[in-house]
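Notes to self, ECF RNA polymerase sigma factor SigE:
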Amino acid sequence: MPDWGDVLSAHDGWLRRVVATRLREPQGVDEVMQEVALAVVAQRSPLLDPGRVVGWLYRLAVRQTLLYRRKAGRRRSLVDRCATLRPAPDEAPGPSPLVWLLHDERREIVQNALRSLPPRDADLLALKYGEGWSARELAELLGVGIPAIETRLMRARRRLRAQLESLATDFKDPSHD
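result:
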């Protein structure tokens, strides 16, 4: 039986990236990772093929993320029904308001574009570019060949590029054309 603490530590970085990509709210990543760890420890049947632990962890993280999002949605619905919303106090921007604003807008555009992608594409892009995974590592994770991963990455990049172009045109001011 593997030492699950070591296994989770070894895969913590990319698992967090997958959870964060699917969750889209950074404050819940730690909670989901705790649920993943509990599910790993509480497993009832042993993993027969240790070579498949990466794919198993991936599926487990996705499942726990979905459960968390469902629970968070219910919680938000309850809060919305029971509480009145008050505006948050103004926060002072960084030293350069223009730089802060541009950075914030770019991040928002990219996040919106990623949200519009299918989860599989968003996961692939997050692991490839956020974690620096190779096509070989992604192929092992998903149990497909390297050419299939390269094709999926190409399609995911194309979809992201199209979404970014679409969102960027939405922000253009027609009076400046």
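- Helices lie at 4-23, 29-41, 53-82, 97-116, 119-130, 135-142, 146-171.
- The chain has two domains: 1-86, 91-177.
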